[in-house]
Amino acid sequence: MDQVIGAVINEYRFLKVLGTGSMAEQQSKLFKSVYHVQDVNSQVNYAIKVYTCPASDIRCHNEAKILEKLSHSNIITLYKNLQMKFKGDSGEIITMDCLVLEYLEKGDLFEFIAKTGNFGESLCRYYFKQLTQVVDFMHGQGFVHRNLKLESILLDRKFNLKLCNFACASYLNKYKDGKLKTKVGTKNYQAPEVLYGAIYDGVKADVFSLGVILFIMYKGQPPFSKANQQDALYNLIIQENHKQFWEIHSQKMEFSFDFKELFLGMVNPNPEKRFNIEGVKNSKWFGGVSKTIQDAYEEMINREKYILKV
Predict the structure, then answer these.
(1) 231 contact partners, CB below 8 Å, separation of at least 6
(2) Angle (deg, nearest 10), helices 109-116 and 293-309
(3) How many domains does the structure of the chain reveal?
(4) 51, 31 in Cβ contact below 8 A?
(5) pTM for the whole thing?
(6) Are 215 and 274 part of one and the same domain?
(7) Are 81 and 64 in contact, with CB atoms under 8 Å apart?
(8) pLDDT band per the 50, 70, 90 thresholds, residue 54
(9) Cα–Cα distance between 170 and 194 in angstroms, integer?
(10) Which of 123, 167, 191 is nearest to 25 (CA)?
(11) Is residue 310 assigned to a domain?
(12) How far apart are CA 261 and CA 259, in angstroms?
């Protein structure tokens, strides 16, 4: 579909590729591409997510239905759910499911951290509070995300976060006991019970992923590769050898007691003992001082300038 750039399909001119990816539970196949487009009539910019595999239409409709029910300043806006006709590589016409979404020009948090380094404590807390509040809202509306990661956190022009990628999301009451069984998500962020393929509590799985996001924002590196016994770092958490875990991670920076307490509570191997959202919000670290909106904006502007230079 490389030839789509510059083309006008329906009323949208396709300007550039923003990203491509696979459904999180089927990493071997390309399932979606996201494009920056412009409405040729209104000149308004949008992002269009094209589900490029027929087998992914269920996920497309799932994402659309959930986004239609979630209206929040920190959740990406869905404008349309439609089908478009594209010319395939062999010249054939292919009908694909598409979502017309809010265009968020600043990219995602992953890019900012990967290219400019970890966030200081006050900036980290500023974004973590936004993220926790929107996830709490989503849970309160009866949904779990199941693919929380830095790449699922986009930034608007004022550097407020916008949660996206709801293709793996689910209704909390899908099953009578509220538990879920489909293994979805991104392995680096998956809770151990999801990684093992067990039946799981979607809320507690989301909290685990939030804990991994928090750590990466704070240090600039992941706390472990996978949440299983084969991962040396996570195995230290399983064995409750927290002292050695923090000694390894503290070689280049220090972690406060309050941060350690919050992080370990969020990534506890036992979901029954793991923090819930209220536990996160009531923690001492969460209640600490955050950047002001203006200070956060100015720091992110400076980080953006650095990215544009390199």
Answers:
(1) 224, 225
(2) 70
(3) 2
(4) yes
(5) 0.93
(6) yes
(7) yes
(8) low
(9) 14
(10) 167
(11) no
(12) 5
